């Protein structure tokens, strides 16, 4: 059984100076020591009972000693809890005890607490939320001159200054809201985990945490036709295409652009299918002449007819996906997490779409979302139902 012992390390300075309260952990004949931030004079420490003594001092000093006494008790309770859990799990070393204690200390700081929460979220399959937490925490730490800060320092003044700094740098309201909402979630979790006390105050009450409606971007039918007719064939000799004699790298680039265009047009013809649904679309989702799949965002069941254009695009990727469960070559590695592959594919697709837009002379921004909004706009003009043929909640 491990034991915890407190002792006072006297100051090495000449004169009457406060020493440092330390403790040592002993287990299996191994000893580890650790210093606290408590400073005591010799008269304020009883070496027999190993307790803090409330000496005849000023009121300010007595207040400090009361807080120090509470901190000593908190340390004892923390170690009792840690040792109890390790005893139940079996054999352990003194380094395991101290490691868990240091982890508890670190968890009172924004960076380390956010890291702990991120690991928990990832374990439950919520990678995007974990990444959002880390991004928000890094943003606030960068504002704090790159220094980590205690969770208890998250107050309304700091948060408001952070918001003003983002406004000064030209961040949009939705970007500001992203940081504030995630920092608020971290702050609330810290209270729930008792890393900080609930003072009843809300540091985020005076900053923007809403969602500003953005203008939906879509392409006209003429722009879609221009994109569709853009010549990207090898050796075409056109300005847009890969000219004869071009390097292997150039040829690869234009083959990638052609693949991006086909994926974009498939999403459009598939009644505005989102890119995440496209990426996860499996061959088993094709049933005869129809595609049936559950939307990642809503869980609703979508059923739609495969048009000749869609079938041609599917066939164009058949060699690349011959040994794959998926229809399109986005989730291609069996050794990498699917979520990371999707996000990498999304970034690559959006970068390629930007280049395609420039080559086609389209001056508005083009991204994966544009195919969805373009189909919705076209359907509205033609008085077509915007909801796919069949949409029902997942059972």
Automatic annotation (TrEMBL):
Coiled coil: none annotated. InterPro entries: DNA_brk_join_enz (IPR011010), Integrase-like_cat_sf (IPR013762), Integrase_recombinase_N (IPR010998), SAM-like_dom (IPR025269). Keywords: DNA recombination, DNA-binding. The keyword DNA-binding applies. The keyword DNA-binding applies. One of its GO terms (molecular function) is DNA binding. Residues 123-196 form the Phage integrase SAM-like domain. GO terms for biological process: DNA integration; DNA recombination. This is Site-specific recombinase XerD.
């Amino acid at each position: 059984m491990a034991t915890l012992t407190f002792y006072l390390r006297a100051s090495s300075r000449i004169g009457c100076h406060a020493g440092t309260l330390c403790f040592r952990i002993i287990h299996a004949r191994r000893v580890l020591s650790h210093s606290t931030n408590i400073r005591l004079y010799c008269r304020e420490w009883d070496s027999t009972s190993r307790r803090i003594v409330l000496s005849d001092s000023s009121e300010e000093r007595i207040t400090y000693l009361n807080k120090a006494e509470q901190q000593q008790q908190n340390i004892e309770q923390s170690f009792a809890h840690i040792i109890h859990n390790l005893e139940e799990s079996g054999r352990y070393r003194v380094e395991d005890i101290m490691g868990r204690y240091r982890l508890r200390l670190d968890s009172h700081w924004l960076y380390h607490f956010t890291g702990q929460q991120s690991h928990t979220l990832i374990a439950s399959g919520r990678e995007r939320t974990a990444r959002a937490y880390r991004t928000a925490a890094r943003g606030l730490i960068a504002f704090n001159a790159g220094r980590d800060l205690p969770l208890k320092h998250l107050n309304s003044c700091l948060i408001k200054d952070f918001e003003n700094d983002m406004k000064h740098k030209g961040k949009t309201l939705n970007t500001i809201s992203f940081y504030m909402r995630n920092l608020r979630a971290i702050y609330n979790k810290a209270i729930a985990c008792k890393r900080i006390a609930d003072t009843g105050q809300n540091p985020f009450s005076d900053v923007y945490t809403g969602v500003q409606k953005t203008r939906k971007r879509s392409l006209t039918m003429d722009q879609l036709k221009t994109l569709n007719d853009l010549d990207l064939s090898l050796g075409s000799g056109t300005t847009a295409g890969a000219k004869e004699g071009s390097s292997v790298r150039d040829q690869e680039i234009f083959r990638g652009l052609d693949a991006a265009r086909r994926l974009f047009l498939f999403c459009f013809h598939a009644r505005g299918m989102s890119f995440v649904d496209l990426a996860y679309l499996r061959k088993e989702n094709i049933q005869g002449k129809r595609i049936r799949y559950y939307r990642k965002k809503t869980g609703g069941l979508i059923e739609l007819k495969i048009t000749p254009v869609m079938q041609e695009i599917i066939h164009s990727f058949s060699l690349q996906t011959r040994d794959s469960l998926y229809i399109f070559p986005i989730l291609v590695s069996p050794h990498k997490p699917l979520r990371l592959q999707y996000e990498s594919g999304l970034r690559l697709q959006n970068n390629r779409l930007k280049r395609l837009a420039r080559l086609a002379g389209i001056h508005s921004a083009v991204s994966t979302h544009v195919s969805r909004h373009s189909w919705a706009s076209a359907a509205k003009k033609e008085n077509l139902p915007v909801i796919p043929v069949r949409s029902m909640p997942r059972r």
